[in-house]
Design brief:
By secondary structure, this protein is an alpha+beta fold. The chain folds into three domains: about 1-145, Zinc/RING finger domain, C3HC4 (zinc finger) (Herpes Virus-1, 2-Layer Sandwich); about 180-270 and about 280-335; about 365-555, Neuraminidase. About 35% of the residues lie in helices and about 25% in strands. The strands form twelve sheets. It has a four-stranded antiparallel β-sheet with strand order 9-36-35-34, with no helix packed on it. A four-stranded antiparallel β-sheet has the order 10-11-12-13, with no helix packed on it. It has a four-stranded antiparallel β-sheet with strand order 14-15-16-17, with no helix packed on it. Strand 11 and strand 12 form a beta hairpin. It is elongated and about 150 Å long. Mean pLDDT is about 80; it is low at about 1-35, about 90-95, about 140-145 and about 315-335. It comes from Zophobas morio.
């Protein structure tokens, strides 16, 4: 193979010489002092690629022994493909089915490439040329005491190494060197311009940074004032609770004191004239005296404590406020609510929340609701079908649906027990559709906009205690109250001094005179009075207990416990009325216990929890 390689080297050298206008005879007649330079030139031609005429890089040898750069072979193959396609437009499919091939640029011998372009990388190296390249890399430098340097601009040679620019690491001749120095000097103005632009950019960044910091200061001050107001509201509530306890204590004292005086009068004025009734009378007096002595001993023995963390009153031990004597009616006590909440909390904690009904093919449900006139029915906003489905939970089958050509994207559902009407918020139509109890379409209310009587992307809705409709106007970052019959705007919640404290509210529930709002954009739950005063709020962005990632929907049970559909965390969290976490169930997953994205939630009077999941198109009843 060595002879074949040498022949190929000679032919390659000859071809290159011819391209330069030389012949073998001319090369043989050169003077002896140029023989060393001629040998170096032959070696340089040997390690030169026949395609790019540059020094070989990643040399690959074809079966015909001709060697080329890998990148040059790749480009040659691509050009060959383009040419074949242009010549065979009518038979393009046939050409595309043929295996890739390349012709040697020197001898035109065909080389099949089974893997296409990838086959080029598998071609072998030319060991002979590889050895020559290594030899040249190691021995060319000592041939002359001083290497020639080619000018980067005019490509002439120079023997002056001091003309190598230390900035750009390139060599210049005498003429080009002076031009290069002049060019560098002219670039100073460019540097000055860049410095000026950088200064302007720096000033803008400082201004932007100061503005952000100023907004932070305003936000901190605003948050501080809100927390102060919240603490004052909590203080007022706790002080009222203490006042109530004091009043109850005084009432109990007056009751016991009056009974003591009456018993003393009975004991002082009674004489046992009838010997037959002495024992019976004495037993009655003794029983009444024991009862009063026991009431005196229990009076204010129950220890009421203040919890600074939850900012509320609690009772350390059971006391007289929870005890009822046989045959007596105990007066109303403020601590009964504490027991009721604690019992309900314990029931939630002990509950396993295993679904008793799973509908896995629900057409992308949004919110769900149970009508006040029939607790067996469940209304489901089905966004895929642009309808509201009516499910009979006892029979576990669809009983009907609410439809209208005007309804595009049903979202929230509310009911009027007084007017026997059904209200559906339409997020895309920007209005509220009204249906009768029988399913007849009656009218629509509101329209798109940001003024009174207008909404943008209405989401969750709920019915207030006075038959006012409470609507999450998520596009305008507010809550509005309207007359459920006329659609007249009554009030707005969440806007103070033309600034909103809400960020895309999507869920709302009503408990007594309180409105619970799922402030999705702020990842919080905010509670207001009907007149718009904020009571308190809880939650933050995160995955821990009491935190949310898009608090999407909210519901309230008959005792005031708050259930939040934590959409981003794919779970439901149960809170006490004061915001304390009671129970968390669900989590990411498509099983019976998991959720994808909680899009709807409601709780019945029997404490059945109904959860809609828009991501997995599922409805579960716990």
């Amino acid at each position: 193979m060595g002879d074949f390689q040498r022949n190929s080297v000679v032919s390659k050298t000859d071809s290159f010489s011819k391209s330069k206008g030389f012949t073998k005879n001319v090369r043989l007649r050169r003077q002896p002092r140029l023989q060393r330079q001629d040998s170096l030139g032959a070696i340089e031609e040997l390690i030169q690629c026949g395609i790019c005429l540059e020094k070989l890089t990643q040399p690959k040898m074809l079966p015909c022994q001709h060697t080329f750069c890998l990148n040059c072979l790749h480009s040659h193959l691509m050009a060959h493909r383009v040419l074949i396609k242009q010549q065979s437009l009518d038979s393009q499919n046939a050409v595309s089915k043929k295996p890739a091939a390349i012709k040697c640029p020197v001898c035109q011998k065909r080389v099949d490439l089974e893997k296409g372009v990838e086959s080029l990388a598998d071609l072998p190296k030319n060991l002979y040329i590889d050895s020559v390249m290594k030899l040249v890399a190691g021995d060319i430098s000592p041939i002359s005491t001083k290497s020639d340097n080619r000018c980067v601009k005019c490509h002439t040679f120079s023997q002056q190494e001091e003309q190598c620019c230390q900035h750009c690491m390139q060599v210049f001749c005498n003429v080009c060197w002076n031009e290069h120095l002049t060019e560098l000097e002219s670039n100073l103005s460019v540097l000055v311009k860049q410095v000026d632009e950088s200064k302007v950019r720096l000033d803008h960044k400082l201004e932007n940074f100061e503005n952000r910091c100023q907004r932070l200061v305003e936000r901190i001050k605003e948050t501080t004032l809100q927390k102060i107001e919240l603490l004052k509201a909590k203080e007022e509530k706790v002080l009222k609770d203490v006042e109530t306890l004091v009043g109850e204590g005084n009432t109990t004292y007056d009751d016991i004191s009056t009974r003591l005086e009456e018993l003393k009068t009975k004991l002082s004025g009674n004489s046992f004239h009838n010997n037959n009734g002495k024992v019976f009378s004495f037993m009655n007096f003794h029983r009444e005296t024991s009862s009063l002595l026991s009431a005196v001993s229990r009076f204010v023995e129950a220890r009421v404590i203040f919890d600074p963390e939850s900012f509320r009153l609690d009772q350390a031990t059971e006391g007289i406020y929870n005890e009822v004597e046989d045959g007596e009616n105990a007066p109303p006590r403020g601590t009964n609510s504490l027991e009721r909440y604690e019992n309900a909390s314990q029931q939630y904690r002990n509950r396993s929340f295993v679904p008793k009904l799973v509908w896995s093919r629900c057409p992308r449900p949004a919110n769900v609701a149970v009508p006040p006139w029939d607790s067996r029915l469940l209304y489901i906003a089905a966004t895929d079908t642009h309808t509201v489905l009516i499910l009979n939970r006892d029979r576990r089958k669809l009983q009907g649906r609410l439809t209208s050509s005007e309804m595009l994207y049903p979202q929230g559902i509310a009911f009027s027990k007084k007017h026997q009407e059904i209200y559906v918020s339409d997020k895309w139509k920007h209005c509220i559709h009204v249906f009768s109890k029988n399913g007849d379409y009656l009218r629509d209310m509101l329209s798109k906009g940001n003024g009174n009587g207008k909404v943008r992307s209405p989401d969750g809705i709920a019915m207030g205690p006075n038959e006012e409709l409470v609507i999450c106007d998520s596009g305008n970052d507010r809550i509005i109250l309207i007359d459920s019959k006329t659609g007249e705007h009554l009030s707005t919640i969440g806007i103070i001094d033309k600034k909103t404290m809400l960020n895309m509210p999507t869920g709302v529930a009503v408990s007594g005179d309180k409105i619970i709002v799922a402030d999705t954009g702020n990842h919080r739950i905010k509670i207001f009075y009907l007149d718009g005063r904020k009571i308190h709020e809880f939650g933050s962005l995160g995955k821990s207990r009491g935190q949310f990632r898009s608090a999407e929907v909210v519901a309230v049970d008959p005792l005031g416990f708050i259930l939040v559909g934590d959409g981003g965390n794919a779970r439901v969290q149960v809170f006490k009325p004061d915001g304390g976490v009671v129970k968390i169930f669900g989590g990411p997953g498509q099983g019976n216990d998991g959720f994808g994205w909680v899009s709807g939630i409601c709780i019945t009077n029997e404490f059945d929890v109904i959860v809609a999941d828009s991501k997995t198109r599922c409805l579960k009843i716990f």
